[in-house]
Amino acid sequence: MQKDQWATKIGFILSSAGAAIGLGAIWKFPYITGMNGGGAFFLLFIAFTIIIGLPILIAEFIIGRGSQKEAVSAYKSLAPKSGWSFIGHWGVAGSFILMSFYSVVGGWVLIYSLMSIPGLIIDKGTNYEQLFGSITGSPLITILGLALFILINIIVVSFGIKNGIEKSSKLLMPLLFVFFIILVIRSVSFEGAMEGLKFFLQPDFSKITAENVLYALGQSFFSLAVGVSVMVTYSSYLNKNVSLTSSALSVSFMNIFVSLLAGLAIFPVVFSFGLEPAEGPGLLFIVLPEAFAQMPFGELFLSLFLLLFLFAILTSSFSMLEIITSAFTAKKQRSRRKVAWIAGCIVFIAGIPSALSSSTMENFKIFNLTVFDASDFLVSNIMLPAGCLFISLFIGYKMERTLVKEEFLLSSNLSVGTFKAWYTLIKTIVPVTIIVVFLTSIGII
């Protein structure tokens, strides 16, 4: 049994939502939607989140609490003397690669946050696209941001679940929602905002390709933080009086809601100021200053929003470092603090090539992608879907059905019929959909 546990149900839900929301919903969702057709992509994303992502999230919760162990040990405990523990190792590896490039973006947000406090971002005549390029094009600035971001992660994860991750999530996550709603209200009031709303909310399925569908599936997994067993580790700290299904529904709803807010906040500004919706990873950093510059006390609001955004990113990265740390402290009584420091330093070293992808290593390509983009593609479109496929097969065909049923129904008002429907979904529809989407995207089907 894990010694550390979530103190409250709301603490677990907000921390899980924080792990899910982070960069996935706020940073990545707007630009990946902009690059993949707008409204039609958004509808695909919602469908995949509800039909595929939510059942997988419930499955990860069941594996975690059913075993009461972190990712690697969970599969060993539930399927002893079998090879299924590779799913846990897959998750740790995926979290490691994910955090290596994720922390680079976290470093960008940290630098922007520090610059906004003395009012160094918003200024008349500033070209925000050039500003973003100058920051990401500086090796010193990007590596410094990466180092500071990982340092914060190490410190918080060193304190553990209750004293580190949960307390901060309960305080700051609600504030992020409030500021996002304020930003949406301002964004939709710009002249020309309607074009942005049409692009985001009016689907044009003629723009959808097999590759777009794969990206939508990958985005649903990325934004829910499923496929790398992060939620297995988080739910292993959960006691038995919490409904896993209602918790998963809450996390999924918040994820879709924040993605909706992100789109409503970003795309009206994009079209109002003649920006390009397919701008790419820098979209958010160009649009936010444009929007806040048009508000009274814009610099102050930008600073507060960036700090809250930084927190949302940190809650996600906490979960990644947590799965790595817990994997190496589970068997042997190693010091959590020591392991967190070692793991953090290794992630920092691994993240340097991604940090330099816009500067000294911009011409170094892997399959015609920079290290940053290649890492993102590998995790989002290969490792996460494959991890979700493995988890669905494990819970549907290997884990003891009686335990799965018990964890699914525990502390909930759901019927046995609901469990049967979910169990059928996780055994058939989920794995088949993942396989078909992936094979179609690479041209086999």
UniProtKB/TrEMBL annotation:
Principal location listed in the UniProt entry: membrane
Subcellular location: Membrane
PROSITE patterns xref list: NA_NEUROTRAN_SYMP_1, NA_NEUROTRAN_SYMP_3
Transmembrane segments annotated in the record for this chain: 12-29, 41-63, 84-111, 131-159, 171-193, 213-237, 249-275, 295-318, 339-357, 377-397, 421-444
Membrane-topology annotation of the record: Multi-pass membrane protein
Alphabetized UniProt keyword annotations: Membrane, Symport, Transmembrane, Transmembrane helix, Transport
UniProt entry tagged with the keyword Repeat: no
Cited CDD domains: SLC6sbd_Tyt1-Like (cd10336)
Pfam family, one: SNF
Family: Belongs to the sodium:neurotransmitter symporter (SNF) (TC 2.A.22) family.
PANTHER family recorded: TRANSPORTER
Protein name: Transporter
Annotated organism of origin: Virgibacillus alimentarius
